[in-house]
Amino acid sequence: MAGEQFPVTRWSVIDAVKSQDPEEHARALDTLFAAYWKPVYKYVRLRWNRPAEDAQDLTQGFFAEVLERELLAKYDPARSKLRTYLRLCVDSFVINQEKAARRQKRGGNTAHVALDFQAAEGELVGATIDAASIPSPESLEEFFEKEWVRSLFALAVEDLRKLCSEREGERTFRLFEDYDLSGDPEISYGKLAAEYAIPVTDVTNALAWARREFRRIALERLREICGSDEEFRREARAVFGSDVT
Predict the structure, then answer these.
(1) Which of 66, 76, 131, 209 is the Cys-Cys partner for 49 at CB 3.0 to 4.6 Å?
(2) Which residues contact 236 (CB under 8 A, 6 or more apart)?
(3) Residue 18 is assigned to a structural domain of this protein
(4) CA 74/CA 68 separation, integer angstroms
């Protein structure tokens, strides 16, 4: 059998957000917000050249609008990718806020999304907060896509961490972290084996398992936030390469 199979799950935010089950509906929104809030925040900071405080308010406001106007229910997978649709919705929201000349107060029963803006700001260190730095629609799409992939992988890493903890495989995760996530050009299987006082074969086996599980988890996460099977397959090939079947 060539390559690995796609996840068999067919659950997605697009289906679940229309559910009459409150838990299913809430799960869909949590999944969406987790995957997209950082890309949206950074996009508002760069594309609309907004200071951090304004960008935070706009990001919170946008996701409140997703809830209030049921924007996901209006999404048509046949017309665009979900991330493209959401990016365009962000543009429309910011423009409308500018026209309103004042920030709309949202309270009452509206859900408040708890977001770690400080962490997002840390990731923006070194970036030029200048709208001219991403002037074309193509570069805007590319920027949003890169941040979307970064968010997807960060969620998958955290899921892998939890899985390793549940299976008492903390050492396996640390090996994965040291070798695949640290960015240390000097790291090697031999160095890790010496550091952890284990055979090189144990390092090899642990990393093979961790990478396989990371890929599986990331694909499952990806499937959840795609609008259709076709979009999922297209996005999976773009993220993981042509060997995905």
Answers:
(1) 131
(2) 6, 219, 222, 244
(3) yes
(4) 12
Give the pLDDT score at 29: 85
Residues 6+ away with beta carbon under 8 Å from 4? 215, 244, 245
Element (H, E) at 9: none
If you ran DSSP here, which 8-state letter would residue 3 be given?
A: S
Structural domain boundaries, residue 225: 13-240
Print burial letters for 108-134: b (CB count within 10 Å at least 16), e (below 16): eeeeebebebeebeeebeeeeeeeeeb
What the block records as the tokens of 17 is 């957000």
> Predicted confidence band at 26 (pLDDT cuts at 50, 70, 90)?
confident
Environment class of 41 (CB within 10 Å of its CB; exposed 0-12, middle 13-18, buried 19+) = buried
| pLDDT greater than 60 at residue 82 | yes
Q: Is the dihedral of CA 58, 64, 66, 70 positive or negative?
A: negative
Question: What is the reported pLDDT for 6?
Answer: 39
This prediction's pTM: 0.78
Instruction: Tell me the pLDDT tens digit for each residue of 199-229.
Output: 999 999 999 999 999 999 999 999 988 888 8
3 domain-assigned: no
Mean pLDDT of 169-174: 96
Q: How many CB atoms lie within 10 A of CB 22?
A: 8
Q: Name the domain count of the chain.
A: 1
